[in-house]
Amino acid sequence: MKKSSIPSWNTKTSYIYDKSPTMKWIKLTAFAAILFSFLLSLSSCEKDAEKKKTTDFSKPGIVLSGAQETPATTSSATGSMDVFYTRNTHTLTYTVTWTGLTGAVAAMHIHGLAPSGYAAGIVQNIITSSGGIATPSATLYGVSGKFSGSLYVDEVLVKEQNLLNGLYYLNIHTASNPNGEIRGQIVFQ
After folding, report:
1. What is the pTM assigned to this prediction?
2. Residue-by-residue pLDDT tens, the chain, 189 positions
3. Which of 86, 123, 127, 137 sits most deeply, having the most CB atoms within 10 A of its CB?
4. Is CATH 1.10.3470 what the domain over 55-186 is classified as, yes or no?
5. With b meaning 16 or more CB within 10 Å and e meaning fewer, what string describes 139-150?
């Protein structure tokens, strides 16, 4: 007797070629379940991304200049500020760089509530002779420099909605400009 040239796994009785209605239904159900699971995983990732858009806010490269001070200064100094706020921790973090000041930093503050063009009281002493995060130092905070810090949004003195609406600003004071030499509005748009 001659052996068949068709492999035994490739016969019509093999489970691969089972054309019964039950097998078709199982295959169709399995395919639908896999497709549904895949689409569900994509949509859940999208929801996380959407949620992050409403909980995390950042703005790099906010410009600090004398023209933004109130009243404006003629200083040629410039600065840049990167800000990040997360609703999860209620914390604003910032990094400020500056160059070309008329002298060493005498003070640095966050002020509010005030839109661009208006002055307001201090809500955080960053660099001050007392009660700040740091004290003035011509070596550390000279005519050019960098400082990083954070501000807790407590919903009493500093309110989240006012922060997100751009009603706080940071400014840098020098001996030549005791009311502020350069300023930048904290905005997220």
Report:
1. 0.73
2. 555 555 555 555 555 555 666 767 677 777 777 776 666 566 555 555 665 568 999 999 999 999 999 999 999 999 999 999 999 999 999 999 999 999 999 999 999 999 999 999 999 999 998 888 999 998 899 999 999 999 999 999 999 999 999 999 999 999 999 999 999 999 998
3. 127
4. no
5. eebeeebebebe
Domain spans of the chain? 15-54, 55-186
Residue 138: Cβ within 10 Å count: 12
Collapsing DSSP to helix, strand or coil, 70 comes out as coil
State the residue for tokens 């400009």.
Answer: 177
Cα distance between residue 10 and residue 143, in whole Å: 82
Strands ordered across the beta sheet of 91-99: 122-127, 107-112, 168-173, 182-186, 56-65, 78-86, 91-99, 145-152
